[in-house]
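Entry 14: structure prediction run for DUF4411 family protein. Input pasted below.
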Amino acid sequence: MKYCLDTNAFIEPSKGWYAFDIAPSFWNALIQWSQKKLLCSIQPVFNEIVNHKEEDDLVRWAKQYHDELFLLPDEKTWSELRNIANLVMGVYEDHLAEGFLGCADPIVIAYAKAHQLIVVTEERIRKEELNSNGKVGGKKIKIPNVCERIGVSWVNTVDMLRDLKFQF
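Run finished. Output tokens:
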């Protein structure tokens, strides 16, 4: 496998240019690439998708392809997650660390690290600054920032599509 998709790599495309009624080929390609073992996601991402909102095209699609696309984290993932949790708690303010560690984001990064995958996210890296307490503050910990800190590559959806030579 090459890629591990974050929750917003599904939600954002489903709300925009890759909406199911506009770009069904995008969604078909994700499944085909999953079957070819080029990409995956994880169970916690599935949980965020189906618990995120009311039943819609994305929720129905995720449920239909659950077994093919959304993998269970393994022991290697949990080991990496412990390392990420320690890093996040040491670097970021407590309220940010708690919010980040309470969602699928760190598990996506841990799975990618454990299996040498590239994280696919629509989040962008943000400049981080230390507060007077020596920890990074802000509104939210971004996936790319943590990826950079632990040496995991990340791309956005369009970069993944270019790499996989996707065409409509």
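Notes: The mean pLDDT is 95. Will compare against the previous run tomorrow.
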